[in-house]
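G., the chain you wanted modeled:
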Amino acid sequence: MQSVDEFIESLLKDKGITDIDPEIKEELVADMKARLMDQINKAAIMQLSEEKADELARLVDDPNFTNEKMTEFMTNSGVNLTEVALDTMLKFRSFYLGTGE
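Predicted structure as tokens:
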């Protein structure tokens, strides 16, 4: 699976956004990455049962609840993070390029 940064670079290229000021591009990439990651996180949370979602809501307030612990929690809760990420990236691509959905 390509990295999120590579995915966004590919989207910009496919959209024809190649010759822009580096500062503007950096801001655009950061914004797109934040939006994509937010959508992936929401999609993953939607895969949780109500009970697991409530448990997660309590856990995220713990400062010791790291990204690694979050990934472990999601995986142990039956969420296929790779599948969720790929599906969300495909939808994001389709929306961004205007090719459907």
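The helical segments are 4-15, 22-46, 50-59, 67-76, 81-97.

Shout if anything looks off.
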